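Minutes, project huddle
Topic: does the predicted pose make sense with iron/sulfur cluster bound?
PN asked that the exact inputs be recorded in the minutes so nobody has to dig through chat later. Recorded below.
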Amino acid sequence: MSEELGYIKVVDVKHYGYCPRIVYITHVLHCDEVVSEAMEMGSERHEAGYIAPLIARLKPVKIFRELKLDSDRLKLSGVVDYLLITDLDEYVVAEVKWSEKARGGVKFDHKLQLAAYALLVKENFGKDVKRGFVYYRVDGKILEVFLSGGLKRFVERIVEEIHRIILDEKMPPVKVTETRCMNCGFSRYCKPSALSGEVYKQARSRRGPE
Ligand code: SF4
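Predicted holo structure (tokens), as shared on screen:
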């Protein structure tokens, strides 16, 4: 699906979960994220071995890898790393992240991403996805996420909000912490007031030359 048709991607949901302003930067300003070495490594083709413990646990009868899905209703598309179908006909989504987990477990933006894939699976296969998994390569851990109806409805509202930001071309206010801005690959375009003086210079120098 293309942007011309008014579709957004699941990565936009992930970005919104990190900071809604990223949606404005990518879709209205058309600026791309500064790609770090870790991100380049993460974009490499996923190996089935990464989720071997999950396969051993679920014993799926079918595995789709890098499956493209879309929804006409939500105008949303995405490529899920893995969709596993068990012998009980349970549909499970899984993502591989070249990063570490959050202190409390799965990162919030990754939960939203899994819930967005669950919505796409529902629309394409007619199956409710009740749980997903994230494999964090830095930690070497696979973590489970319960994908509740409330979380999926929350993601539907986020999808609506993303379309609205793109349509209105109005920059969302900064509602994230300075730490998050420091680790954001879009800070050079954003120049948030949350990052001022020396802190902003440090963030910019970590992202390389403009
Ligand atoms: S630098 Fe901060 S405010 Fe700007 S997009 Fe990134 S996280 Fe959001």
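Observations noted during the meeting:
- Residues 19, 21-22, 174, 176, 180-181, 184, 186-187, 190, 192, 194 surround iron/sulfur cluster (CB under 6 Å).
- Residues 74 and 107 are 24 Å apart (CA to CA).
No decisions taken; revisit at the next huddle.
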